Amino acid sequence: MEKGGIEVLDSQVLIRETDFSRLAHTWEELAEVMKSQGDENTPLKLIQLAAKTKNAELNIAFCGHFSAGKSTMINTLLGVNLLPSNPIPTSANVVKIRGGEKAARVFTMNSGVLTFDPDTEMEKLKQFAVDGDTVESVEVSYPGTFLDEYASLLDTPGIDSTDAAHKIATESALHLADVVIYMMDYNHVQAEENFNFTKTLKDRGKPVYLVVNMIDKHIDFELDFDSYKESVEEAFATWNIHPDGIFYTSLAEPDHSENMYEEFKGMLSQLIADREKLVGTSVRSAAEHLIDEHIQVVRTSQADQRQQWEAQLDGLEVEGIDSRNAAAVQEALEQEEATAAALEKRAEDARVQMEKELSVLLDNARLTYFSTNEAARSYLESRKPGFKVGLLFAGKKTEEERERREEALLVEFREKVAGNLDFHFKEWLGKQPQVFDLRNEEYHASVHATKIEITGEFLSKHIKEGAASSEYVLNYCADISSGMKLEYRRVGLSFIAQVVEMIKEKVRVESAAQGERLGALRELAALHQKLAGLAAREEETKGRLLAIMRGGE
Asked: What are the recorded GO MF terms, alphabetically (predicted)?
């Protein structure tokens, strides 16, 4: 029994047939997804690929120069003149020839499918084959050749034709080709177009066999044939092209000593024998290429938007930055945002730093010594209840003694504060603007003009009632020391506040300049993000299609 072109003899063959059916269904599923995304042409190619896949149909495409003898070679291989062999471009469309019952069909764009008798109406069919404006493709089936109904030869237009329709027809057929035979005229083997087209075929993963035809033109005394073959192989290798085989043929002189026609025909028969394996590999490769083709369609559909955003990129200039370089823009943006954050924190960080240094300066200032303690002890005694000096005029003398002891402590304490705190305090405060790259003469003068008075009132307010022990003298000295440091802290904080305001003003100026650059970089980064979104859509689409493809394998 036969089904789908494969004789079902055992479960292994049935599995192979099921594989081809599943693949065909997958190509149809891919076509539906592509169609939903606004692609019109690629889904049609996938539908064609699906039809071919269901039957595991092998297509051998003949490509090359229109004068390379493709049609004559195909007629010779078939043993029947189905194709015209005039040295003019004969097929604006792809002509497909396969085995099977006699039939010739022309698939037109406007009139549907037209049928002809290949034995009696080939001239009409040939005319349709030339007319690329109304005909999409031509298919001829003919019995008695080395082809069967599941193996076909595709005759494509000459790739060197000036007619754009010819080139489009050739390229549009490549997704259906499992193997490509690239034919060249002996005299035109090393034409650049041959290298370009053959490389394109190899890059698409197609098995490519080269046929150098009309070798009867070779003149041996000018160059021996082995050297000629070596030059051909080296020329293709220079282009990094490694064909699956090279055949040298002559149809005009079948007995030519270098003619490889029989080997070439044998190779074609072997390809047909290996049909399922070749088709299985080829259709997967073709589907992958059609996915890439669809992604190009998606990319083209986004081209206007991409160009608009790229034009906006070019219109934004940021000194020292290539606006088209997304990585450079992002790096610069991160640097500018870090700078902006640092600017925003600069004043607060400065305040914290200065307050910490002020605390260290005050904590390290020693304001009382043994002499201070003695002066304090004497001062405190004069402040005890019942303190009295002399008998005559005691009240006046007692008050004078109290004043003398107070002054002694004031002189002592002022001296220690001036030498151990006031000098260092003013020196430190005066330098703070410079620490932050600021200059303010008025501030500097104000710092050094500052005077913190140490008065009798200051001394007296730190006396605690009822404290009269020697231990209290030490506590009292600590209290007046702490009290004086509090006064210096209060004054110091007011000057720190002035420095912080100076820093804030400088930051405002710098931020205004930096903000313009930051804004431009943010705009550039946003545009790059939008462009990356377009690329991501393309990648996501490709990933989705590849996932469908892999799921169907």
From this structure: GTP binding; GTPase activity
The tokens for 19 are 């594989």
Same domain, 169 and 265: yes
- % residues pLDDT > 70 (the chain): 88
- What number of other Cβ atoms are within 10 A of residue 507's Cβ? 18
Buried b (16+ CB within 10 A) or exposed e, 295-313: bebbeeebeeebeebeeeb
- Average pLDDT for residues 231-257, to the nearest whole number? 92
Residue (of 248, 52, 72, 77) closest to 147 by Cα position: 77
pLDDT score of 162:
45
pLDDT greater than 50 at residue 3: no
Q: How many residues does the chain have?
A: 553
**DSSP code string of 313-352:** HHH---TT--TT-HHHHHHHHHHHHHHHHHHHHHHHHHHH
> What are the CA-CA distances from residue 180 to residues 65, 90, 250, 258, 345 (Å)?
14, 19, 19, 22, 69
Are 340 and 222 contained in the same domain? no
* 515 phi, psi to nearest 5 deg: -65, -35
Q: How many domains does the chain have?
A: 2
Contact 146, 52 (CB under 8 A): no
Q: How far is Cα 367 from Cα 481, in angstroms, rounded to an integer? A: 6
CA dihedral for 504, 506, 512, 516, sign (positive or negative): negative
Q: Quick one: pLDDT at residue 14? A: 40
Residue 77 in any domain: the answer is: yes
Question: Whole-angstrom Cα distance, residue 404 to residue 138?
Answer: 130
Q: Is the pLDDT of residue 129 over 70?
A: no
Q: With a cut of 80, say whether residue 482 has pLDDT above it.
A: yes
